[in-house]
Amino acid sequence: MSDTKQQKALLLKSKHGQFAVGLNSIPKPGKDEVLIKVYSVALNPIDYKVQETGMFVDHYPVVLGEDIAGTVDEVGEGVLNFAKGDRVFTHGQFSNDKAGFQQFALGVTDFTAKIPDNLGYDDAATIPLALDTASTGLYNKTTYGFGLTPPWVKGGIGMYSGTPIVILGGASAVGSYVIQLAHLSGFSPIITTASPAHEVYLKSLGATHVLNRHLSADVVKAAINGFTKNPIKYVYDAIALSETQQVGWSILDAKGCLVLTLPASVQEDEGKERKAIMTFGSPHTKENKELCKGLWAILSQWLEAGTIKPLRYEVLPDGLEGIIGGLEQMKAAKVSGKKLVAHPQDTK
C-alpha cells in the first residue's frame, strides 16, 4: 500500500453512517493483480444494504462498489494476459483496495476481462456482479445454485432444450442476465415477470413470455400452465421479496428448486424434495471460483459476438458525489430496467 499517492474515494464513514468523498491511498498490484484507473462504476442494491445493515463489512471507513471498468495502469507479478493501457472490467470486492467507488482499484486477473471494441466503459460496468449472480444461481453445483451444466463447457449450449424455466424480476439486472444465460442453455419456454414496458426488451434477450409482475400467484400459475405442460423445476427469483418468493414457491414442482437473491422466507416442506436456495454472486468465494473462472475466460469473446449483451444504463452526474443520490434513488425503488453508473474521474 502506498502512503504517498492519494486518490479521491467515496467512503462509508461508519457502520450505518453516511457516504462522503474523501481520500484513500492508491494501492500497488500484487501477484496476479492489475491496478485499474476506474472510468466507470455501477451501483448495486448491496451498496445501500451494507450502509443500512452493516452486512459483509467489519472495518470503517470502507469503500464499496463491485462493478468496475477502466484501463490497466500497472500490472503485478505474474500477469501475462494484460498490459498497461488495456481497457478492462473486473468484479471488485468488499476491500478498500479492490472496490470501485474510487479512482483506482485493484482487479484479480481471474475475474478481469478485456472490453471488446464494440463496447464502452459504461457498458462493461453493468456486467460483473449481476452476471456472476445469475451464473452462480444457475450453475453452482455445491451451495448456491441449481447445479446445471454451464454453456461455456463442452456440450453446455442448448443442453436444456425443451425444459421450462421461470424468472421472477426479469427486468432487474440479475434477471436480465438469467434470461440471457437460460437462452444460451436452451431453456424453453423462458417465462419471466416484469412491468409490461419491458416486454420487448426482455424478449430481445431471450424471454419467450413476459407476464405482468403485479399479477397474483394464481393468475401467474394459470398462465404458465397455458405455456407449457412440463413441470416447473427451476424458478429463479431475482427480486426475492416475500411476495415474489410466495409466487415462485406456488408454481414450483414438488421436486423443483427455487433460487433466491435474498434469504428464504418460504418454508421448505419436511420430507419433500422441493427446496429454496439463496445464491451468492461473488466469484472470489471458494465455492464459486472455478465456475466463474470459466465464464470470465470466455466473456470478452461472448460480448464481442453479442452472445451476452450488457445492460441499459444511466450515467449519474458529479462523479463519486453522484453515487450518493443514485443509491437513494435505488432505495426508493425509482430505478427500473437499467443500471446506474458513475464516473469517478469526473469527481470535483
TrEMBL record:
Any GO MF annotation of the entry: oxidoreductase activity, acting on NAD(P)H
SMART domains according to UniProt: PKS_ER (SM00829)
InterPro entries listed in its UniProt record: ADH-like_C (IPR013149), ADH-like_N (IPR013154), ER (IPR020843), GroES-like_sf (IPR011032), NAD(P)-bd_dom_sf (IPR036291), Trans-enoyl_RdTase-like (IPR047122)
Annotated ranges, domain Enoyl reductase (ER): 17-341
Chain segments annotated as coiled-coil in the UniProt record: none
Entry protein name: Chaperonin 10-like protein
